[in-house]
Amino acid sequence: MQNLLSSNLLPKNLKIKIHRTIILPIVLYGCEAWSLTFKKECRLRVFKNRVLRRIFGPKRDDAPGEWRKPRNEELNNLHSSPNIILVTKSRRMRWAGHVACMGGGDRGVYRVFVGKPKGKRPLGRPRCIWEDIIKTGLQEVGCEGMNWINVAQDRDSWRARVNAVMNLLVP
């Protein structure tokens, strides 16, 4: 794809469509189950900016007339796509709503989600788990201290919370 995105023969709008329809779905496949750390979030942002730099190419400075890479702010101004981190968070919240609405003990996904594994945990700080990520996402929206499984049963209010995640400000 690198040669295709950096080619001068294709117009930029076609390259952006390729990015939106082919590259992003591949990168975000299964993001509903990810428990992203800050380091992984940064890597996703770097990937997205790298692809956009490939699409838009180098930029020529006015005064010295030299070529340089476009900065992140310039890329955001050239292409107004939703933040990749917010997309993953909203997809995760939407999937959490589906899992919470499954309910009952007979569904495999719900049993894996609610069940607690037996045995001892390893020493040290516990790893970041998926449910904790959902709870922090709800805290960012302003719904802390609520039992989110019960909140997800009301589909309209849950959909509003998922949309609120997309409107958060991320650096």
Q: In percent, how much strand structure appears in the residues?
A: under 5%
By DSSP (H or I, 4+ residues per run), the number of helices equals 9
Structural class, by secondary structure, is mainly alpha
Q: Could you give the order of the helices and strands?
A: HHHEEHHHHHH
Widest sheet, order of strands: 1-2
**How large is the radius of gyration?**
20 Å
Principal-axis shape equals elongated
Largest sheet: 2 strands, antiparallel
Instruction: Give the total of beta strands.
Output: 2
Name the poorly predicted regions: none
The number of distinct structural domains comes to 2
Layout of helices and strands:
Blueprint: H1 2-5, H2 12-27, H3 38-56, E1 59-60, E2 67-68, H4 72-78, H5 84-102, H6 108-114, H7 130-141, H8 148-152, H9 155-166
Antiparallel strand pairs: 1-2
Helix pairs in contact: 2-3, 5-9
Description:
- This protein is mainly α and 171 residues long.
- 59% of the residues lie in helices and 2% in strands.
- It has a two-stranded antiparallel sheet with strand order 1-2.
- The chain starts with a helix and ends in a 5-residue tail after the last helix.
Summarize it:
It contains 9 helices and 2 strands, in the order αααββαααααα. With 171 residues, it is mostly helical. A hairpin with a 6-residue loop joins strand 1 and strand 2.
